[in-house]
């Protein structure tokens, strides 16, 4: 996200797709998505999926 490869508002692959692409377990992918949602980096659009939040990333 920080590199600009993923633009704000872009749809994020589904949890299942992320599991397949990364080879990570369902639990690991779910935890990672939960952390990103809690940090406000992902937003859920009911019936549409997960999207990157439209907010700037501030570097410290």
TrEMBL record:
This is GntR family transcriptional regulator. Pfam families: GntR. One of its GO terms (biological process) is negative regulation of DNA-templated transcription. PROSITE patterns: HTH_GNTR. Residues 1-55 form the HTH gntR-type domain. Keywords: DNA-binding, Transcription, Transcription regulation. The keyword Nucleotide-binding does not apply. One of its GO terms (molecular function) is DNA binding.
